[in-house]
Design goal:
four-stranded antiparallel beta sheet, 3 helices, 38% helix
Length: 106
């Protein structure tokens, strides 16, 4: 049986706060390390109200191996710290955080 590709999504309310250079740096570092650990694509975006991040994985097992690694824990800590320094209240500002199976993609 073929494994199903998945996406991992994080959506955070901005509450009129700006994305800082530290947030960009920590997120880019995290997403680069994710690629080294099996991520096949990622996006870091914003609109007026939210920060949106998603990663795409060949299967949930690869994602979960990364999520349980020291690389993940270290980078996650840096992201939380950079958001906190920018005035975000984590986890209160997190709107949505989920893993979803991809049903169709092109």
């Amino acid at each position: 049986m073929l494994e199903t590709q998945v996406v991992r999504m994080w959506i955070t309310n901005k509450n009129d706060k700006e994305i800082t250079a530290g947030m960009i740096e920590s997120m880019e570092d995290f997403l680069s390390v994710a690629i080294q650990n099996g991520c096949i694509g990622s996006t870091f975006a914003e609109d007026e109200e939210r920060i949106i991040v998603y990663t795409r994985w060949m299967d949930e097992m690869t994602l979960e191996q990364f999520r349980s690694s020291e690389d993940y824990k270290t980078r996650e800590g840096s992201i939380i710290q950079s958001f906190t320094y920018a005035g975000f209240e984590i986890p209160e500002d997190i709107l949505f955080n989920s893993t979803a199976k991809i049903l169709f993609s092109n």
